[in-house]
Amino acid sequence: MSERAIQKLVIVGGGTAGWITAAAFARLLGPSLTIELVESDAIGTVGVGEATIPQIIRLNTILGFDENDFLKHTYGTFKLGIEFVDWGKQGTSYLHTFGDTGLNLANVPFHHYWRRQAQSDGDNSLWHYSLHQLAANEEKFAKLDRVGNTAMTGLAYAYHFDASLYAKYLRAYSEERGVTRTEGIVGSVERDGESGDITEITLDNGTTVSGDFFIDCTGFRSILLGGELGVGYQDWSKWLPCDRAQAVPSERLETLPPYTRATAKSAGWQWRIPLQHRTGNGHVYSSGFISDDEAGEVLLAGLDTKALDDPRPIRFTTGRREQFWSHNCAALGLSSGFLEPLESTSIHLIQSQVSRLIQLFPRGKNADAERDEYNRRCAAEFEQIRDFLVLHYHQTEREDSEFWCYCKNMEVPDSLNHKRELFASSGRLGRDVDDLFREASWVQVMLGQGITPATYDPMADAITDQQLSEFLSNLRTIIERAVGTLPTHADYIARNCAAPQMS
Questions:
Q1: Which of 192, 226, 422, 443 has the fewest beta carbons under 10 Å from its own?
Q2: Residue 58 CB partners (closer than 8 Å, separation 6+)
Q3: What is the pLDDT of residues 222-235, one digit of tens each?
Q4: How distant, in Å, are the alpha carbons of 116, 259, 278, 361, 422 from that of 110?
Q5: Which residues lie below 8 Å from residue 211, measured CB to CB, with a gap of 6+?
C-alpha cells in the first residue's frame, strides 16, 4: 500500500520569506496541496532585503509577474551591480557588475587578454571594457539583450524595491491562488510521539493549525526548526565579525543611480539603495569594535539625503543551521541562517531554498533521501556565498582601525585561500560548478580588492600585439556607442514603471 501523500502545507511566518514560499508553492504545487500561512501583524520584519541579484527575474517570470507592474507596486528601480567604496584600501572603488567584462575570445576569458595588455599599460583598467560600468557611470539603463550585431551580451540587471511592498504583492498573488492566511502568534507546538514530526501548532488566540509538512519562516527566532526541533547553529562570526545593523530611510536621491553602494567604514560598512520614493540606508557593523550609539552616528553622518526616521537596530549572528530540513519541517530565510546583505543574497537564498524544496518535495512522509540531498545542497550554497563575502573583508590593505586589522589577519577557510592563490598566480579561477557567483564576479572582486594576477593564460598569446590593441580599442568603441543610445535610468522608469504618485 502506498504511503499517505502530503496534503496540507503550513507556512509559519510571513514577510518576504513566507510569501515567496506561499506564492511559489501555490504556483507549482497548488493543485495537489492545501496551503495555509500563519503570521501576525504584531511581529515586524527585518526588512533589509531591498536589493537583489539577477536570479530574482527567474522567480518573477515563473510566477508570471509583469515586470513593469511589479516595479510600480514596489517603488522599484533597476540595478546593474554593487559599487564597493574604500574596501581594498581607502580612496578606491570598483563596481561588481552582473555582466561580463569585455568579450571572451577563442574560449579564453577576457580578463586574460586585459592582463596581457596591462603588463605594458599599467594605467589600463578592466572596467574600461565594461558595458555595465559605463552605463552606471552615466546613470543610464534600458533593456538591452545584446550589443548591436556583436557577440557581446547586453545589460544584466536585478532590482531594488521596498521589501514590505513586495511581500504584499506576493500575498495578493498567493491568496488569489487559494493560499489561506491565518492571523496569530505561535503559542505551542504539538509533535507525534513516535516519529517526532510536527502535527499542529496552537496560536495565542487558541486556534489550532494542523498540517503534514511545516515551513519555518519565523526569522531569527526559528521557532520550529531551531526552537522546537532543537537544530543547532553554526556560528561564522570568526570569519564575518559584523553582528549588528542599523537601518534608516532617507529622502529620494536627486538622481537614480542604477546600482547599490556599499561603503566600508571603520568597523563595518554602509549600504545605499535608491528607490523611486526614498533611499534605503543601513550600517552593518561589529559590536566588538564600535558602540551602538557611535554606529548610529556614523550611519546618519554618511547619508546623502535627509533621514526620514530614526535608525532601527537589528542584531544577528552570521552562520547557518546544522540542518535546513529536519523531520517534516524545513526552515527558509532567516530561520535557516544569515549571511549579511553585502552581496544582496538575502532574497536569493529564500528563492533558491524554495526552488530546491519544491524540486525535492516528498509525496509522503518517508523522505530521508530527499532530506539529506536538500541539506547537502543548502549547506554547500551557504558555504560558497560565505567565502565570497569573506573575500571582501580579508583581501584588504586597510590597517586604519582594529576592525580592519582583524579582518586582514584572520584565518579564512581553505576553500577561499585556494581561489585567492590560484587567481594571484595566473588569473585562473577554481570556481565550483554550482557556485552562485559567476567567474566574472570572482574576477571583478578579486581585482577590485587588490589581487593582480602575476601572469595570464598563455592561450591569450595566440594573437599579435597589434591584433590585441585593435581588439581592445574596438571593444571600447562598441561599448561607448551602445551606452550613448540609452536613456537615463530615471527617464526609463518614468516612461515604463513609475509608481502611482511618482507619475
A1: 192
A2: 351
A3: 999 999 999 999 99
A4: 10, 23, 38, 41, 17
A5: 8, 9, 10, 36, 198, 199, 200
Q: Residues near 83 by Cβ (< 8 Å), separated by ≥ 6?
A: 93, 94, 95, 96, 136, 259, 260, 261, 262
Cell numbers placing 291? 558602540
Tens-place pLDDT, residues 100-116: 999 999 999 999 999 99
What does pLDDT average to over the chain?
95
CA-nearest of 13, 5, 7, 8 to 225 is 13
Please list the active-site residues. Answer: 79
d(CA 62, CA 48) in angstroms, rounded, equals 24
Residues in the chain: 503
Q: How many helices (H) and strands (E) does the chain have?
A: 14, 21
The beta-strand segments (E) located in 177-277 are: 180-183, 186-191, 198-203, 208-210, 213-216, 233-235, 244-251, 260-265, 268-274
Identify the residue whose cell numbers are 530615471.
Answer: 490
Contacts of 460 (CB under 8 A, 6+ apart): 108, 112, 113, 115, 116
Question: Which band of pLDDT confidence, cut at 50, 70 and 90, is reported for residue 364?
Answer: confident
**For residue 435, which amino acid is it?**
D
